[in-house]
Amino acid sequence: MSGHSKWSTIKRKKEKTDAQKASAFTKVTREIIVAVKAGGGDPEHNFRLRMAIAKAKEVNMPNDNIQRAIKRGIGQSESDNYEETYYEGYGPGGVALLVRILTDNRNRTASDMRYIFSRNNGNLGEAGCVAWMFSSKGLITIPVETAGKTEEEMFEMIIEAGAEDLQSNDEFFEVYTEPSELESVRQYLESQKIPIKAAELTQVPQNTIAVSGDQAEQVMRLIEALEDNDDVQDVYTNADFTDAESA
Question: Residue 168 sits in which domain range?
Answer without folding.
Answer: 133-205
